Amino acid sequence: xxxxxxxxxxxxxxxxxxxxxxxxxxxxxxxxxxxxxxxxxxxxxxxxxxxxxxxxxxxxxxxxxxxxxxxxxxxxxxxxxxxxxxxxxxxxxxxxxxxxxxxxxxxxxxxxxxxxxxxxxxxxxxxxxxxxxxxxxxxxxxxxxxxxxxxxxxxxxxxxxxxxxxxxxxxxxxxxxxxxxxxxxxxxxxxxxxxxxxxxxxxxxxxxxxxxxxxxxxxxxxxxxxxxxxxxxxxxxxxxxxxxxxxxxxxxxxxxxxxxxxxxxxxxxxxxxxxxxxxxxxxxxxxxxxxxxxxxxxxxxxxxxxxxxxxxxxxxxxxxxxxxxxxxxxxxxxxxxxxxxxxxxxxxxxxxxxxxxxxxxxxxx
Length: 365
Ligand code: SAH
Ligand code: SF4
Prior knowledge:
By secondary structure, the chain is α/β, with parallel strands linked by helices. It has eleven helices and 14 strands. Iron/sulfur cluster is lined by residues 120, 122-124, 127, 129-130, 182-183, 216, 357.
């Protein structure tokens, strides 16, 4: 059975052409999938009867079942455990960013944090997904399916992360961060295909510039991304500014030195003419020291870089503590001396273990 969410527009067109249907029919099916968000082949509107029959014999629309649904106490974050066809489960988080005071008639914007793998093979010591190990890659359709799931949710007036607010407010999925479970560049082809599907203007039409891919820092994948045309944002998880420190936290650092990783990053900024975001999980007295801050400053000075600092979120398998606000500020002040802008990522959904690095398959949290 073909999962229609696995196919790009061109692949769908080709499939239908092989069955003897013109491009027009591919357009109708695509619209049903991504504008009407049809849940089954039978729900696809305007599809000719003979094509519908052919589709129901050969294809499905992969729907991810909901295993659990948790809302954070501040009402702005909601975490879903979703079930794949083989009973593998993955997590998707939806966040509402309350920026300036919204007007009642203004569109509410949401960010979805999407998984690219069930588990993760990279084994970063402080990350719950890393602690559980690798199960498998997600298919393009399973990555797309998470985004379709969120789009459907935002169309239900009562089911947003927060229930209050005037009914006439429109909810829009604006940003996608590939920062859920898994390492997206380890699942390169499926991730890129999913990005191509959700950014297609004939369907969901999400803006590539509103998509951020976060990687543990696989140099080959970064170079490949640099050579391709997609204008998504890249975030590279660094966590250590010397090989010794990074190796303590990120096992892949044993395979690729910082010099090799930074070479790939520079290649990316030169080739794409885009800034890179570097992520730094700040762990008290581990990697939040003045020495590490200066080493980081020297490593990135002169580069078009922005550092996202994430105070450590607790996980069962790691004993470190988050840096307090004084240490966070001191760290940022040193970076500023090197002309490096940084922001502290807001802590989100910590009470429901939906924060960065807290995602793992658990029905009861
Ligand atoms: N595999 C990718 C994307 C998923 S993790 C990557 O590693 O970049 C998304 C971000 O959360 C990464 O920067 C990761 O280092 C960070 N992270 C993981 N565990 C964390 C934790 N316990 N507290 C804070 N940030 C964490
Ligand atoms: Fe995998 Fe990213 Fe977690 Fe590291 S931080 S184990 S790469 S999900």
